[in-house]
Amino acid sequence: MAPVIATWLLPFLLLAGADDRTFTVAIDPGHGGSNRGAPTKKEGTYEKHLTLALAKQVQRLLVGERDLKVVLCRGTDILVPVRARVRCGNQAAARLYLSIHANAAGGGEPPGSQRGFEIFVLPVADVDKEVARVALLAKDDAEAAWAGHKLRVAAEQSLAAARRIEWRLADTLGRDRDRGIKQAGATLDVLQGLEMPAVLVEIGFLDHEEEGPFLLSEEGQLAIAKALAGAITDLRGREQRGRKEPMTTSPRPGQSARKEP
Ligand SMILES: [Zn+2]
Question: How far is the CA of 203 from the centre of ligand 1 (A)?
Answer without folding.
Answer: 10
